[in-house]
TrEMBL record, chain A:
PANTHER family: 2-OXOISOVALERATE DEHYDROGENASE SUBUNIT ALPHA, MITOCHONDRIAL (PTHR43380:SF1). Residues 1-20 are annotated as: Disordered. NCBIfam families: PDH_E1_alph_x. InterPro entries: Alpha-ketoacid_DH_E1_comp (IPR050771), DH_E1 (IPR001017), PdhA/BkdA (IPR017596), THDP-binding (IPR029061). This is Pyruvate dehydrogenase E1 component alpha subunit. GO terms for molecular function: magnesium ion binding; oxidoreductase activity, acting on the aldehyde or oxo group of donors, disulfide as acceptor. The lineage of its organism: Bacteria, Bacillati, Actinomycetota, Actinomycetes, Geodermatophilales. Keywords: Oxidoreductase, Pyruvate, Thiamine pyrophosphate.
Automatic annotation (TrEMBL), chain B:
This is Pyruvate dehydrogenase E1 component beta subunit. Gene3D superfamilies: 3.40.50.920, 3.40.50.970. Keywords: Oxidoreductase, Pyruvate, Thiamine pyrophosphate. It comes from Klenkia marina. The keyword GTP-binding does not apply. It comes from the Bacteria. Its cofactor is thiamine diphosphate. The keyword Oxidoreductase applies. It holds the Pfam family Transketolase_C. GO terms for molecular function: magnesium ion binding; oxidoreductase activity. Residues 4-179 form the Transketolase-like pyrimidine-binding domain.
Amino acid sequence: MTAVPEAQEMVDPVPGAAAPHLPAQPELVQLLTPEGERVEHPEYALDVTDDELRALYRDLALVRRWDVEATALQRQGELGIWASLLGQEAAQIGAGRALGDDDMAFPTYREHGVAWTRGVDPLQVISLFRGNDLGGWDPLATKFNLYTVVIGAQCLHATGYAMGIQRDTADAAAIAFLGDGATSQGEVNEAMIWAATFDAPVVFFCQNNQYAISVPIERQSKVPLFRRAAGFGFPGVRVDGNDVLAVLAVTRAALARAREGSGPTFIEAFTYRMGAHTTSDDPTRYRLADELEEWKLRDPIARLKAHLSRSGKAGPEFFAAVDAEGDELAKHIRSGTLDMPDPAPTEMFDHVYAEQTDEIAAQRAAFLAYQEGFEK
Amino acid sequence: MTTLTLGKALNTGLRKAMEDDPKVVLMGEDIGKLGGVFRITDGLQKDFGEARVVDTPLAEAGIVGTAVGLAMRGYRPVVEIQFDGFVFPAYNQIVTQVAKIHARSRGRLPMPITIRIPFGGGIGAVEHHSESPEAYFAHTTGLKVVAVSNPADAYWMLQQAIACPDPVVFFEPKRRYWDKAEVDLEATPQPLFTSRVVRSGDDLTLLAYGPMVKTALQAAQAAEDEGRSIEVIDLRTLSPLDLTPVEESVRRTGRCVVVHEAQTTLGLGAEIAARVTESCFHSLEAPVLRVGGYDVTYPPSKLEEEYLPDLDRVLHVVDRAMEF
């Protein structure tokens, strides 16, 4: 519905305010314009208190600070790789904050913002990228599954989990995070067929960040992604993924629909990966700097800051306090990373099975004996 | 004691597992109203309802992938892959997800999933219906793999696999589904991940699993008529392997032959030969020999009798081992 209005003057403190115009975006649900103006949508009302707005800003700012610190740590050789969420903060915080305590999230490998909303310590995510473990958090206690790297598999896990919710007659839903590239995977399509067939309480939350590493969305789909849902037999909605309020409202509605037994929803959060795919990637080989500059004008954090500032809901003291908290978070991440102990070498033998086999036990013993041989 | 076919023993075992644990959920193609193409789940949907015996969409990755999610929610999914050759659409979920999740989560997410696969040839089927893909799964860390050969094991091992906290790929010898035997439903079963001596002998140790156990026993009987005493061991578990009874046997007999339907190269026989050679080197009178399928695409059914190891091929290799 509400297309981004053209030719509006930008106002401070939006970065890049000198650019007078933004190109039109496709039709999408929006509650906060790139300029920070609060707008209404006929289907998605959102009641948020000023405290909640400030809390959302804090979430957005802190996960970006985390991301910046992790990228720096990778550049300094402390992490093997880092998958930056830069530009996707609103999509992830909006979706994550829509979740109830009993809802279960199934991320890919970039959902650090969702991890944040589930109370996962950033260091437990960092440890994966540092090579200390394969995911340090407790997926059941946090209701945030381990990262899934082989694209799309988690959509089936979420659907199966949702089938379990149905059998438990629990008041809960599952949410599967996926990207635009993932929509080409067979398993993602199978998941949507299953979810539709069984009316499973699952939400497919697709962050269309326009690129699967280097390959643009045009190579994945001839139709807007959200329209695919109709073919599977459930609603699809496209939301401004850089608008945390719209994402929150749309995801809340989809989760409520799932919990009440009305089945799945596909959400396309239209956003942009402002950084590289990972720290190993070089986006200058496949996209123009102009494109990034355009998207900077739609920055998810700047628009909420503009709204809070202009409406008087937050002032310089609030933003300074969040910045200071960000600096503390960064220190926690940096010192926690540098102090992180290497895993015990025997760790790799210990969790292959719930019931250890004699074969692996023997290999573990042989490994220890071999190691001890060097110490003599 | 009750006389059951192998297929009915599986059906009875599934029923018992579902009665014992309300978290057991069966999923697969055509397993509900139809009772499965081999009728292994016959009558179960009628008695346990559609929430516990689920006729799924035709999508093997979906079957296994949703089983992962159900397991995370505390269920014990038992999934049926309709035929051996149909497992590969689910291969990614099995190898990339099911096998690794326990290790990745450091034990926080157990995967008590049983993946039932009818396997092997000999029923005159069209392509992709007669394969023996067990080595792919035995090679995959994080999975446990078993193969049953007779009705009693079918009844007990299936229940044990379902109760196992680890994922178990459960191979059923489809051409033996109609074989009958006495099953003691009150017995104390042998532990799941153990092999078993099924015929004693002194001259050679013959190893088999699944459909080839019957063939091995027939070969041993024929050899006895020629004056040779062959010990037959039903491996039962392919991962982990239980070679303790095998080694005890080979140290006595000095000779070992492994039989399977799967292609010989890099099959289970290769691993077993390597291990037995290492552990029994000083007892061996001959190299460990293998009898398996040829390294060819599974042939059209008019040729499968030539492809599959049979009594004569087993005896031929037994002769080679004896004459070495």
